[in-house]
């Protein structure tokens, strides 16, 4: 009887814990390949992830159980006909590999997860779904590419290319009741898809750009609810995008073009009786180029004539007798792939803050923010009236638009009215980078209510927030957010406004790392690494721009090296080892290529750009002419290549290529020896000509002999603090490591001075001079402004990393990538008196909110469930510290001391820390 009661008590106790877990713990954010319910993936063993959220502390996953089914009904019935993992003893909740039955083309998978924790068992309330795409080229063989490869009467192929949109339609007859239906579409360069008059999806500027001769991305939509038994109408509009290049027959040796817009589409229909049907693109589709979109060119803008609108063109009520049959056209050449990254979307709206009339009768609209997207127009007028909108980032002293920095981009939208009451219009296939718009053509005085700014970037989550006691730093953070988001266009581009907008590698070498704290950019950058891989030459070379829309194959280390540093970011920040395994052979090929072609006497001799954009000695200069400010290019390339070798050693382990490590080790050792022999001045304790970058790179990369490190650092500090009067003197290369290295060597106060400066050269100088994004040049307002993009992110360097890792204290432990363990070590003495920051990691929300005065430090932190944190406290006096109002002891909070700091390892939860 006693045993029975004990056993019953144990059952009740377990039930109580499990019930408590249900109330206090939840499982959500179920993802496949870090995408939410993706359609048409092309991975047969996808990775599944989930987040555990808890209102109680110390929650650890001990096991999981995944059920995957071929239908929602089977899943709800507990029938895991595809995969029943059973209870797996593991704390893995990120990138768990599907290990069920082999998945097939166009298959739907429904799944859920039950999580077992040390506090009880909990099942995700949501069920998740993903589907497999069309996996082989042969499965598209019966689907023809269609289009129209001729110019209409007002089209032109020239430096300023103009091509009208293609409208296509196809009536289909579904003779049975539809059970399910999916569309697979490749619309080059950009498309909008309609069924029975309704646009499918809320994406814009789709699909994401690639080198279309290498790979083509298709999008997949479940359109079951849009179809009905009987007659239905499929419609598409094809825009030009990067496919029909913005500059045709202009510098063809440099600018790549792919042809005229075209499309391939498959509609798979399953009926309720189990039978199936496939509708494909062929020459029975009808086509016209005589629609309202007269031109759409990313550089020059969109022209729209509302008088040419075709009411109900994508419904069965429309008469298309004047349309022609679509033509069969040559396929683009690239392999067909499911798109594994987000399309772009209108992410927010901006209302203008002022509108002023100019002496010539036009109006200048001020959005109050340098933004990227387009303007929605509301207008009344007569048929044939034209509203012209020209976009720019800034104004001239007389109040007119400043357009010299746009180069030959026309950045102009033209809307011709149809004269039917209030008309609302916005473009479909272009975007602008702008704050100001010159408006002309209104017959009455326009007001602010006539316009709304639409902000467009990749449909990814903002994951980071940051606020501090320093207003300048806070504004820089906001400027960075606007600049980064605006330059996410299915790939990271350098600028959104002038006739460039290219995916330069060098702009993101370290920048991608800082961006990852603000945005969930994992799938964007994983896709971009594929772009880089696909641009690699047979012998191993990598261009400076990828996809290689511009043919810049010139070879150097620092720009192509981004291929490796971005992969390292994805591993460090998101725990993505798969991307390293996938890209490793091609990275190795490039490393070997550079070694074989440019390593001479163990010095890497190839550099193209130097420390790009070093702040000039004069506000009027675009580039510095002072040799003492410029760092030897071979020093930069040699140091950078040495650092890449160290990253490749880590990658070799991940990719199970341990045999490569010996070569990397030996080569790195030789380069380090030759580097110090050539560049280190032992009598002066500095490198080369003693620029900050010359000393900074070997310090950061661990190339300085141990006994000289402090002396070299002192020389670096003297250059920053005395010679440059506490200002930035590094260009794109040095600034990638400047803030963290100063802080790691004990001069966080000097890094803070750089971050909070208001005078030239500094990020604060941009703010003080009206910037709402980040400039391309430190002195972009006074050097030739025609050379300055006012929305560039390359000069951020490691500033955002420093904000989070060194000021907020939110850093992933390199030994446990993806924030499985967090290092929380703010520099409380750098100069800030409070920081309130958060970051949505792959495990959940991390928060660091601290405030200090002369008496105490109050620090509130949040650690996600299923993770831990090593927390550094600025005291070695146990009696001065309390956590959640509890004094420290070895039982409550085990701790250790290191110099003048205390290290406490905390499990998940919320903690209020007080240090007297």
TrEMBL record:
Membrane recorded as keyword: no
Gene3D superfamilies: 1.50.10.10, Galactose-binding domain-like (2.60.120.260), Immunoglobulins (2.60.40.10), Maltose phosphorylase, domain 3 (2.60.420.10)
Keyword Disulfide bond in record: no
UniProt feature coiled coil, ranges: none
Signal peptide boundaries: 1-21
First-level EC class: hydrolase
Residue span, Bacterial alpha-L-rhamnosidase N-terminal domain: 176-347
EC numbers for this chain: 3.2.1.40
Database matches in InterPro entries: 6-hairpin_glycosidase_sf, 6hp_glycosidase-like_sf, Alpha_rhamnosid, Bac_rhamnosid6H, Bac_rhamnosid_C, Bac_rhamnosid_N, Ig-like_fold, Rhamnosid_concanavalin
Ranges where the Alpha-L-rhamnosidase six-hairpin glycosidase domain occurs: 462-807
GO-annotated molecular function: alpha-L-rhamnosidase activity
Domain Alpha-L-rhamnosidase concanavalin-like, chain residue ranges per copy: 356-457
One Pfam family hit: Bac_rhamnosid_C
Gene Ontology BP, a term: carbohydrate metabolic process
Reactions catalysed, as given in the entry: Hydrolysis of terminal non-reducing alpha-L-rhamnose residues in alpha-L-rhamnosides
Keywords for the protein's UniProt record, in alphabetical order: Glycosidase, Hydrolase, Signal
Domain Alpha-L-rhamnosidase C-terminal, residue spans: 809-882
PANTHER family per UniProt: ALPHA-RHAMNOSIDASE (EUROFUNG), ALPHA-RHAMNOSIDASE (EUROFUNG)-RELATED
Protein name: alpha-L-rhamnosidase
UniProt organism field: Flavobacterium nitrogenifigens
Species classification: Bacteria, Pseudomonadati, Bacteroidota, Flavobacteriia, Flavobacteriales
């Amino acid at each position: 009887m006693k045993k029975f009661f004990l056993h019953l008590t144990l059952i009740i106790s377990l039930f109580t814990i499990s019930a408590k877990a249900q109330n206090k713990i939840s499982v959500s954010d179920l993802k496949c390949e870090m995408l939410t319910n993706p359609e048409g993936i092309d991975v047969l063993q996808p990775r599944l992830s989930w987040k555990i959220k808890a209102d109680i502390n110390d929650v650890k996953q001990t096991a999981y159980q995944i059920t995957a089914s071929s239908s929602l009904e089977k899943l709800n019935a507990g029938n895991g006909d595809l995969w029943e993992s059973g209870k797996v003893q593991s704390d893995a909740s990120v990138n768990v590999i599907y290990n069920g039955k082999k998945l097939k083309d166009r298959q739907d998978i429904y799944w859920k997860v039950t999580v077992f924790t040390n506090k009880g068992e909990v099942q995700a309330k949501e069920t998740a779904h993903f589907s497999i795409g069309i996996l082989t080229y042969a499965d598209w063989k019966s689907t023809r590419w269609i289009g129209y490869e001729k110019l209409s009467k007002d089209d032109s192929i020239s430096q300023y290319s103009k091509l009208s949109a293609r409208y296509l339609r196809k009536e289909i007859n579904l003779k049975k009741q539809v059970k399910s239906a999916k569309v697979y579409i490749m619309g080059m360069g950009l498309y909008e898809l309609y069924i029975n008059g309704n646009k499918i999806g809320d994406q814009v500027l789709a699909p994401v750009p690639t080198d279309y001769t290498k790979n083509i991305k298709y999008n997949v939509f479940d359109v079951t609810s849009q179809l009905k038994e009987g007659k239905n109408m499929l419609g598409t509009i094809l825009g030009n995008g990067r496919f029909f290049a913005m500059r045709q027959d202009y510098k063809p040796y440099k600018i790549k073009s792919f042809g005229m817009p075209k499309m391939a589409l498959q509609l798979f229909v399953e009926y309720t009786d189990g039978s199936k049907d496939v509708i494909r693109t062929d020459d029975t589709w009808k086509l016209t180029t005589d629609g309202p979109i007269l031109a759409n060119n990313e550089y020059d803008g969109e022209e729209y004539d509302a008088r040419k609108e075709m009411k109900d063109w994508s419904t069965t009520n429309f008469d298309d007798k004047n349309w022609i049959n679509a033509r069969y056209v040559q396929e683009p050449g690239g392999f067909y792939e499911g798109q594994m990254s987000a399309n772009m979307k209108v992410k927010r709206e901006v209302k203008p803050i002022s509108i002023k009339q100019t002496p010539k009768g036009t109006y200048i609209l001020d959005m109050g923010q340098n933004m990227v997207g387009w303007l929605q127009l509301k207008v009344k007028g007569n048929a044939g009236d034209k509203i012209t909108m020209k976009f720019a980032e800034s104004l001239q002293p007389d109040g007119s638009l400043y357009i010299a920095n746009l180069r030959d981009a026309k950045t102009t939208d033209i809307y011709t009215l149809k004269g039917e009451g209030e008309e609302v219009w916005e473009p479909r296939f272009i975007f602008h980078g702008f704050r100001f718009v010159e408006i002309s053509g209104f017959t009455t005085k326009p007001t602010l209510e006539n316009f709304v700014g639409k902000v467009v970037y990749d449909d990814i989550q903002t994951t980071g927030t940051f606020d501090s006691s320093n207003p300048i730093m806070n504004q820089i953070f906001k400027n960075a957010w606007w600049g980064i988001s605006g330059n996410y266009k299915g790939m990271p581009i350098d600028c959104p406004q002038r006739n460039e907008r290219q995916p330069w590698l060098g702009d993101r070498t370290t920048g991608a790392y800082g961006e990852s704290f603000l945005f969930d950019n994992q799938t964007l950058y994983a896709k971009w690494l594929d772009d880089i891989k696909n641009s690699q030459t047979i012998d191993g070379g990598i261009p400076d721009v990828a996809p290689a829309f511009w043919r810049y194959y010139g070879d150097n280390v620092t720009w192509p090296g981004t291929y490796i540093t971005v992969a390292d970011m994805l591993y460090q920040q998101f725990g993505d080892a798969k991307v390293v395994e996938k890209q490793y052979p091609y990275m190795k090929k490039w490393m070997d290529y550079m070694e074989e072609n440019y390593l001479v006497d163990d010095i890497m001799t190839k550099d193209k750009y130097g420390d790009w954009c070093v702040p000039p000695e004069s506000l009027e200069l675009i580039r510095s002419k002072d040799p003492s400010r410029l760092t030897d290019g071979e020093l930069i390339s040699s140091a950078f290549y040495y650092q890449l070798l160290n990253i490749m050693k880590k990658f070799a382990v991940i990719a199970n290529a341990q045999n490569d490590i010996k070569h990397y080790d030996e080569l790195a050792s030789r380069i380090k020896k030759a580097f110090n022999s050539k560049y280190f001045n032992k009598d002066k304790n500095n490198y080369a000509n003693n620029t900050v970058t010359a000393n900074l790179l070997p310090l950061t990369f661990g190339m300085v002999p141990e006994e000289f490190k402090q002396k070299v650092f002192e020389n670096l500090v003297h250059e920053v603090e005395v010679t440059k009067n506490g200002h930035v003197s590094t260009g794109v290369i040095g600034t990638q490591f400047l803030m963290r290295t100063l802080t790691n060597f004990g001069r966080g106060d000097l890094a803070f001075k750089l971050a909070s400066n208001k005078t030239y050269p500094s990020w604060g100088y941009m703010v003080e001079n009206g910037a709402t994004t980040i400039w391309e040049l430190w002195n972009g307002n006074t050097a030739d402004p025609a050379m300055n993009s006012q929305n560039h992110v390359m000069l951020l360097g490691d500033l955002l990393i420093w904000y989070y890792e060194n000021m907020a204290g939110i850093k992933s432990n390199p030994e446990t990538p993806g924030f499985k363990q967090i290092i929380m070590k703010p520099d409380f003495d750098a100069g800030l008196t409070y920081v309130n920051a958060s970051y949505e990691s792959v495990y959940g929300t991390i928060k660091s909110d601290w405030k200090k005065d002369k008496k105490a430090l109050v620090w509130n932190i949040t650690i996600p469930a299923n993770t831990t944190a090593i927390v550094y406290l600025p005291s070695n006096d146990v009696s001065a510290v309390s956590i959640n109002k509890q004094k420290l002891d070895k039982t409550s909070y085990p701790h250790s001391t290191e110099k003048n700091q205390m290290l406490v390892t905390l499990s998940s939860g919320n903690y209020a820390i007080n240090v007297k």
